[in-house]
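Run log, item B.
One chain of 432 residues. Sequence copied directly from the ordering sheet:
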Amino acid sequence: MKQSYTDYFRSIDTHSSISSEFRVRTLSGALISIFTLVLTIYLIGSEYTYNLTPTFLDHVHVMPQSPDGLEVEFDITFQHIPCALLATDANDPTGQSQSFHIDKNHRVWKHRLDKNGNTVGHKSRFELGGTLIHEDQLDSLKAAKESKDDSTDAAQQQQKQGEELEEADDEEDCGSCYGAGEEDECCNTCDDVKRAYRRKSWHVPDISKITQCAHMLRASNEEGEGCNVHGKIALSTGGGNLHFAPDRQWEKEGADKVQNPLGGLFLDLNSIIEMFNDAYEQFNVSHTVNKLTFGRSMPDEVRNSLNLTSQLDGVSRTVADGYGMFQYYLQVIPTKYQFLNGTSIETFQYSVTEHTRHVDPGSNRGLPGVFFFYEVSALHVEFEEYVRGYSHFFTGVCAAVGGAFTVMGMLDRKMFDLKSANARTVGGGVLG
């Protein structure tokens, strides 16, 4: 009974072996066998990479709500604008200044550059705000002269109050805020003093008499230099612009100081008007965007696999004169990348179009500057990492290897038949 079962199983063998004495071994068959082995190894490796290496699926959908915030990191070099003449600010779509969130992780720095592009000294914190972007702001400066007499007395009184408080505070580790600070607040830098005065809506006194500002260089000391501005800030997701333009707080020394309704500084009015009248000649906005990114940085392997690039990184733009305004229009797209382990990164991509405007003096088309207009898209892009798995891998290997052996076997049989037919033809001719 046991033997009969064995014979039965043998009868259904579909892979019956051929005795070696019936095998015909040829040189062409050996070459095909070697090629089949190499092809099989390659196909197995390809299936492994295809099925077991993480890849991603992409989805696009409309966001139900806007992101919580928009973090921007930038590094821009202005080859022909001294740091003393440059200011940066951000406006919302209505033209109102946005409130910057400044902390240890969000700060803007400026670094002086010499004529050869080398850094000079140490970088310093960049006070945000106070840009001039419209010609009508120059008219406001001229109108300030009418209120000169009424404002001078109040300015001097506030200045005297600040000086008295400064003398009363001799602690070196806590600088005076000149009466504008909160209780126990320290103002150790010139920017800290300015910010304290702005918070109380007070007029900043003559900065030449503020100890923290004594080290600040005037624009004349930076003539022929450039400026590198870099940092990280948080902007509103409602859209707006980030721009770099002439600073309306240019510090000028002189005896004729009046109230500036734009920024609160007491400036030499005649000097500043004269300066802005030829600002077109002095403010050459040629620049290089070393870096501009939105949101968190993705790992390099993820950026390479998705072919994600920051389109403006390394871009240089040059203007022949000072009459230029560069405008970049950015469409910011919220992006989420989901890893296999369940963690995720939420960041932003952007696309950009640019426009260069020639702003002639008196054209009322604005002042020279570099503007980055941004709008957060309603579309949300998601990339999800996944692997096809071992079931797909083994299925693919069986199909690939089986197909390779079958095709190579057919080729070997065809070549053997052709060789045999050729041999019979030659043999028949000799016998004839």
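Observations after the first pass:
- DSSP finds nine helices and 15 strands in the chain.
- Confidence is low (pLDDT under 50) at residues 148-156, 162-172, 251-269.
Flagged for discussion on Thursday.
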